[in-house]
């Protein structure tokens, strides 16, 4: 086996690792932008719109060179469904579910994406299942365990640690489990939508061999659909104005790394390896986030001790300068006293 074939064989693995790193970075930047007040609906529309604009020249260039794919009604219909499932409905359910529950629950239920994808792939005969095979038995057992764990974290929420008045505590106990369960169900629907989108994207990628054309129409339809919904949700014009630099950075980062890069390489991986292979890397996001957290902690600690060392060094230099100054002042005073004594002795 030549080194080129080895590199090509390892390409999907390396690409998916990069994709997970990109998604962790996107979560960090988008959270920072939304803390500043940017609406998640506005964020979705802006970054998908910018990504579509970036892809437009490439799409037109392919058409001009005669390399473009023949766009049929069947493809347009699939592009429309991809935008509806993968961008519009998925993002609405995801952010609403997080709003009702918590990001921690979203991360836990996000591990259902490989499970739902595996079930759909088996139903649609995209994945083989032989219960006499040990690997198939392991997949089935993992599916049951994952679904059971998701049901536990969705249906159970511990009691609040601090309560105020009896009436407030009673109302809170009645409201929180309902919101928590509703948020968990919405996040589970998000995982199902993501899995459905991966299956549909795999089928579309086989019909449309040009990844950039697929991603262009996918993003175009998703932008139009999410914009139609967001205009009603965010009717205040001030919500659509970007007030902070981090908002612009997050939008540009998401457009380049997610709409253009991530969607393109995932489309390629879906066609080459299938949907089950792609979603099997999803749990790595937690590991990558932990590693980045450790690196960030090390950097913060190193910076802190560097500042402390610099201040200590500065204080030592200042103290040394003061001592030298005192010594030079003492020598000067002694010299002046000696001159005065000499003058007095000479006069006598």
From TrEMBL:
The chain crosses the membrane at residues 45-64, 76-98, 104-126, 138-158, 178-200, 212-233, 248-271, 283-308. Belongs to the drug/metabolite transporter (DMT) superfamily. Plant drug/metabolite exporter (P-DME) (TC 2.A.7.4) family. Keywords: Membrane, Transmembrane, Transmembrane helix. It is found in: Membrane. SUPFAM superfamilies: Multidrug resistance efflux transporter EmrE. It comes from the Eukaryota. GO terms for molecular function: transmembrane transporter activity. InterPro entries: EamA_dom, EmrE-like, WAT1-related. The keyword Transmembrane helix applies. This is WAT1-related protein. One of its GO terms (cellular component) is membrane. Residues 15-154 form the EamA domain. It is a multi-pass membrane protein.
